[in-house]
Amino acid sequence: MRFGVNYTPRVGWFHAWLDHDRDAVRRDLEQVAALDLDHVRIFPLWDLVQPNRGHIRPAALAAVADVVDAAAEVGLDVNVDALQGHLSSFDYLPAWLTTWHERNMFTDPDALAGEEAYLRALGETLRGRPNLMGLTLGNEVNQFAARPHPRPHEIDADQAEAWLRRLLGAAREGLLGTEGAGAETPGTADVLVTHAAYDATWYDERQPFLPRHAAELGDQTVVHSWVFNGAAQRHGGLGTGSVRHAEYLVQLAAAWHTDARRPVWLQEVGVPTTVVDPDDAVAFLEQTVRHAAGVAGLSGITWWCSHDVSRTMLDFPPVEYDLGLVDEHGTVKPTGRALAALARELRDAPTPAPSPVGLVLDDTVPHRTGCAPGGDFFEAWVHAAERDGRGPQVVLQSRSHEAGVLAERGIERLEHPGDVDETPGHLVPTAVASGGAAATMHR
Hints:
By secondary structure, the protein is α/β, with parallel strands linked by helices. The chain has helices at about 20-35, 45-50, 60-75, 110-125, 155-175, 200-205, 210-215, 230-235, 240-245, 245-255, 280-295, 335-345, 370, 375-390, 405-410; strands at about 1-5, 40, 75-80, 85, 90, 130-135, 190-195, 220-225, 265-270, 300-305, 355-360, 395, 415, 430. About 35% of the residues lie in helices and about 15% in strands. Helix 1 runs parallel beside helix 3 (about 60-75) and helix 11 packs parallel to helix 12 (about 335-345).
């Protein structure tokens, strides 16, 4: 299992891309490496790299490559995000997509051509670097596709899938230098080509980027876990629904896999001290990481984030200023020391066995609201996790009678949310028939 961090430059935050300082980057990355982490995820701002649809700045691409090379010098691999897009409540769409030049970034032919050109150029720049971990299309780009974004680039699910396939293909082509490499086929190269969504994909029926898009397209399934989404407000900062939210999201994502061996990458998770007491930050980190690391099929955990946002930076939401493992003055925080210890302990730990229990999610009806914190399915999963000590796998109703699939996932019995009560032990399990279809659940 890999342990890394989302790299937020200590000086200048992501505006540091305006004044690339290799020495400052090297100092930051040396601190990350000293925490026994093995990779970073970096975020060049899209509007700085491609300020005009026809102009991709060579100096900006060179700065990205220089950060990757600086990371190699201290023993870190790098995942690069492309279409930034959106970070920490701020949007960084290039001017050729906004106001007088407003285009739908997902469907407009000119916009798509510009995005493809950028991804190819970035892939070509990074091609062959031995410490390149992968290329992600962008940070939570799905937030542009629907409300609650104030000016959404509205699309439907088919358009979302077409956009993903086209741009994943462009990224792969840039990295490989080959025409038509299958972006949706895992294992076509050593580097990962992925896409990332915030949790509306799993929790909000308005969201056109669907769970199956996350689980079928790209080389791994990527999830971002944040408990300010109602989990901590409902369960408390150290409640089961909070410290196991990341574990739950990994299990939920895997339910849509058509290949039981497909990995899930917990690409973002952090401790928001607006809903978790600052005195509980270390405990939250330790419990969150241990629970998530106990899920079979998890490829890695990338913590958010490396360095606190400086208080000189204005207008950020309060939560953003205290998420780092290192403070704005360069001092490692208790959370940094805790994650380092966990990385040393868990990196080479034996692969965990899958949970033998499958909690059935009825995907034949609208279900995403019920999967969110406070929803019936989420709360049933939490109660089952409290009862068993580990969270159950999630099984889609549409696949719950496929005995071969269940066996491949190591599922021995099925449960339904209506049979998991808040009182531990109150359930009626369904055995998975050996060599045949799963038995029908009766209450």
